[in-house]
Amino acid sequence: MLTIDAILQAQNRLAGKLHRTPLVRSAAISAILGADVYLKLECLQKTGSFKPRGALNKMLTLTESERSAGVVAVSGGNHAQGVAYAGRQLGVATTIVMPETTPRNYLDATRGYGATVVLTPDIRAAFAQAEQMRQQGMVMIHPFDDPLVAAGQGTVALEILADLPEVDRCYVSIGGGGLIAGMGLAFRSIRPQTRVIGVETIGADAMAQALAAGQLVELPAITSIARTLGAPKVSEMTLQAVRDWVESVQVVSDRETVQALFTILERTKQLVEPGAACVLAAAMQQRASFRPNEKIVLLLCGGNLSVSDLVQFAHRFEMLPA
């Protein structure tokens, strides 16, 4: 069960093992949004995203026999590197099952952290392969449907609250929902007046669709460029967390997301992936509601973007200078 005590325990476990990422005020983004805007630079975390928080917290709770058996995870994105990094730090053998469509830079980075990579035709086949490995004795580290993983991700909110206790609103990306589940609970427990806004992109909006349907919805395909938000469906745990602790979920387009990505790059000099840039796009949609002195945090949850991705986005969305 996900509790505030579990998040506080995760903070203690992770102390000194990962970066305490900076929270910086951005004058440029504040001017654009008409509010007092801060960026939580989790894109500067180990492996380039928040994912090692949950993976390492989970792995630190394993028994010696469980560590000896090795761990397996499914991911075509940042969770793969988070688990691989945690395994390398703790001397635990890791196997990552990835769909064949996984970009080369993610494959290379995951192998670079020492993981064994197994490729499957698609994400559903990847989960089936990993489940078979789990039945053979390995420990599965789920990307979001695990209270210990979500508790680790929730430590991001504890850092924000320590640096900016009076935060009024926080925008958080949603893939499977583990990050916003942990952060939402932390904010609700410590500063309940903080408004937590979830963000998805069209074509990777399993949470928004589940909320609208009143039950889990499985997307037939992920069509958004925000690959790291591409969970085919969320879980009962994360869906309930969003119902309980999140004010709303905003869905933005790929074009709005790429515009936000280039704005962040040009105005703050931070290179972030679409799954992080979408939070600025969502804030842009809501800026008419902001007060001039409102303290808003944009969580930039990942920065794993290749140069070829950047060039491709610029061409596809016609953002190259004339």
Describe the structure.
The protein is an alpha/beta fold. The chain folds into two domains: 4-49 and 146-317, Rossmann fold; 51-140, Rossmann fold, CATH 3.40.50. It contains 14 helices and ten strands. It has helices at 4-14, 27-33, 51-60, 64-69, 78-90, 104-112, 123-135, 147-163, 178-190, 206-213, 236-245, 254-268, 274-286, 307-316, and strands at 23-25, 36-41, 71-74, 94-99, 116-120, 139-140, 169-173, 195-201, 248-252, 295-300. The strands form two sheets. It has a six-stranded mixed beta sheet with strand order 1-2-10-7-8-9, sandwiched between helices. A four-stranded parallel beta sheet has the order 5-4-3-6, with helices on both faces. Strand 4 (94-99), helix 6 and strand 5 form a beta-alpha-beta unit. Helix 3 packs across helix 5 and helix 5 packs parallel to helix 6 (104-112). The longest helix has 17 residues, at 147-163. The radius of gyration is 18 Å and the shape is globular. The model has no long low-confidence stretch (mean pLDDT 96).
Tell me the helix content: 40-55%
What percentage of amino acids are in beta strands? 15-25%
Give a count of the beta strands, DSSP E runs of length 2 or more: 10
Report the average pLDDT across residues.
Answer: 96
Oligomer: single chain
Rg computed from alpha carbons, rounded to a whole number of angstroms: 18 Å
As laid out across the biggest beta sheet, the strand order is: 1-2-10-7-8-9
**The CATH class of the largest domain:** Alpha Beta
Secondary-structure-based class equals alpha/beta
